[in-house]
Amino acid sequence: MMLDKIMMVYGLVINLVGFVIMGMDKARARRRAWRISERILFFVAAVGGAAGAWLGMYVFHHKTKHWYFVIGMPLLLLIQVIIVLVIAGV
Question: How many structural domains does the chain have?
Answer without folding.
Answer: 1
